[in-house]
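Re: that chain you flagged

S.,

Sorry for the slow reply, it's been a week of failed gels. I finally had a moment to sit down with the sequence you sent. For the record, here it is as I used it:
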Amino acid sequence: MADTLVPKQKKCGDCPPLVVPRRSYTPSRPSCIECCEKHLGAAYVLLTEAREGYAYRLRAIGHLFEAEDESQEWPDLHTAIRAARKAYQADGTMPDWNAFDGMLGEVRRQVQQGQA
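Prediction finished late last night. Pasting the structure tokens below so you have them in one place:
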């Protein structure tokens, strides 16, 4: 019975199995554009609801951090997400979701073409 109460960590089906050095940099976990997109989407929903009074600030910050962590292979996207998270934490500045949408599209294109 106790085994069923312990949550099992689920992995994205597209995530690589191991963390390997990339371009002289070893990320702390495998980067996955789908997971990054998922966490940014969750943060978007939570921050929208937080503006309406729901207490989702910490959850949204957590999702921004997870997106940041999932994007380490793509330095421009990683830096933009980190800056957005820190700005939101510091003074409540909302992330530029349209900019993220464009950056995600570019990274997804690179991944599909085998360039990233």
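What I noticed first: DSSP finds five helices and no strands in the chain.

Talk soon,
D.
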